[in-house]
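Q: Could you fold this chain for me?
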Amino acid sequence: MVSGGMMMSFQRFEKIAVIGAGSFGTAIAHHLAQRSPEKVGSVILYGRNAEVVKSINKNHRHPLHLNGFELHINLKATDELGKAIENTDLIVFAIPTSSIAGIVNALQPLVDSNVVAINLAKGLDASSLTPISEVLRPMFKRRQAVLSGPSFSDDVFNQKPVGLTLGCQDRSLGRRLAELFNTPAFDVKVSTDLVGVEIGGALKNVFALIAGLIDGVGEGASVKGDFISRAMVEMRDIGLFLGGRWSTFSGRSGLGDLVTTCSDHSRNYRYGVAWADTWVKHDGAESKERREAADEAGRQASGSSTIESLSTLEVVHKIVDRAKMHTPIVHAGWRVLVDTSLNVQHLVREVRRLDLRRHREGASPLQILMHSLFPRRVFRRRYSSKKRRR
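A: Sure. Below is the predicted structure, expressed as structure tokens.
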């Protein structure tokens, strides 16, 4: 506030570069291009596909996504990374997590020290087993945020009500970024729990994938609520272990995103449904042939060749396995899709077998307090197979 009770004026972003011309990246770029000149000077979208770039610049349409809807006339596109980030003061990463480290290395000599970064990707870094904020930290330090929560690109584009959480350790910067995005339809709340917001976004894709597997083998409607409630426990435990806060996982970027994503709107969920359904239909086929057919069907149903939840599942399993953390859903899902030692038709049975140790619902106040204070030391540990047989 300034004297007289008047609000301080918004500090305009002169140029915003959105890296990644996929469905969500394009929808966010379109949203930002519509903001008033007092907030945004220009928005440029970087994509590697020259035909997509040409179509956006000439026809104001994305030929592969958003059903050919007309994009804002102020949105420009380029396939030259240097041109995209030249003189920019805000970079929005809307690319798969597996590509971020390479892009960051390419940007290192080109980016000014005051540039701010927002990450939209929902995954974990496979090499370091850490959130993407750790990959961005050497370059952007505290000048970074993550935007996550229940949202689909079509809803963003069509200005349907969307509610997201912006995680940023610098509260002042977080408020500025939230104001940049906020409209009556696009509501952004700020959290200083950067890691917690990231982890919720990454893990919900894994659980949506596994929820798809369960629905794909026809386990019935009743199991969905039970699955989501148990997935929330595992999301919270893993998130706390990695540095998030308890309350974050009950909000938009945790529970909200999880519920929304365990549905046909999610490509991760659709992949799981089609994978499991195809597996069942190919009963009797060779194991390798059966899995290849299931994977192909899943990718076709998802509409994407990149299923980020598969790589995230591998990373998450490495984390919980090293910690010996009790995560029945993650472990059983990994055995179906990665280790290939578990038949998908036995997935629910295996999750419940592993969860036999849970005799009551919820945690005591003391357990919640200890878990919050010492998340890397106090968590549900996996029983050994010898103990489980007793």
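A (continued): Residues 197-389 form a domain with the N-(1-d-carboxylethyl)-l-norvaline Dehydrogenase; domain 2 fold (CATH 1.10.1040.10).
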